[in-house]
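Before relying on records like the one below, remember that each one covers exactly one chain. Contacts with other chains, cofactors or solvent are not represented anywhere in the record.
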Amino acid sequence: MKFKELIFSGVQPTGNLHLGNYLGAIKRFVELQNRFDCIYCVVDLHAITVWQEPNELPRAIREVTAAFLACGIDPKKNIVFNQSQVAEHAELAWIFNCVARLGWLNRMTQFKEKAGKDRENASVGLYAYPTLMAADILVYRATHVPVGEDQKQHLELSRDIAQKFNNDFGQSIKEKGYGDAFFPLPEPLITGEATRVMSLRDGSKKMSKSDASDFSRINLTDDADAIAQKIRRAKTDPEPLPSDEKGLATRPEADNLVGIYAALADVDRAGVLKQFGNAQFSTFKAALTDLAVSKVGPIGAEMKLLPDGALRVPQSVSAVVPPLNLRANSPLYRDSLTRITAPLRSNKARRDGGHDVHSDRSHAESSDDEIPARTCGAGKRYARSA
């Protein structure tokens, strides 16, 4: 079966979005929206695999949404929504828990890194994170996923799960008219410079909001002075920049700063070194500061905080996230969910003596411009407000 090209990706609402989130994910989302049908998700179910303050999570969800819009994602072109408002993500994740093998999950390196030595106290959700990620992607039968290097292993697991599902239920899939495969094998999109942005204080560690030092990262809400100060204090070595990429191989801090410049300027590392090769870091950092301020500054201006520390949520964000159920009545969204739920409803209809009770109720309650209440998990009131 040939699947229509469709992009899916998401960002966790864990607060303090930084340059790594922008260059590794959101900037790519903006670029892809002009070439593909795209679904972008605020993945709050993933966020709660580790402890989140209940009062902070709604604010963080809106912060990610504000970042999406400030960076240039167009909600009129794409589907943008909050993961927990669509029950099918969790439903399909459970099915995939029954398809995936323990050995597969035991090989996931990110769980080992996040759980550390205290694995016995890690949540089951953190361990099963990859099967929920697979459900996020495959519930819409997405064909491509823009991911960073740290998520590539999880995407490979999504492919394994899809393949096993297609093999295990191959006969049923054919009988229902889906051809040889119900799910596609999603491909990663890892392109461009700085797909993995490292700490400004340690080039061997990923840039992270959990780092104790705020000088390790550039936050999307930082003003020009903060950006300049952080770049000025970024760790480097005493040697000037090399004239070719081979010279960056053993210099992680230099490689990181060159990669950040390349990603912000939409050039490759070779192009940066052609311009700044053999230059002192003082010269290069000044140029990087000007570039970062020009690119990140406008984003921060759209996300600036009020004096009381509350996020200024623009009217456009409130419109896009009524109760955080973006464009849930879009045809693409409806069609994708129908593909998943139709076989399940058919099975239920057979058990009910050939009459699809659920289907009748959904059609009776919803017009052509609404999706059934069940589809949004939280009820019809969301369909009406979309």
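The radius of gyration is 23 Å.
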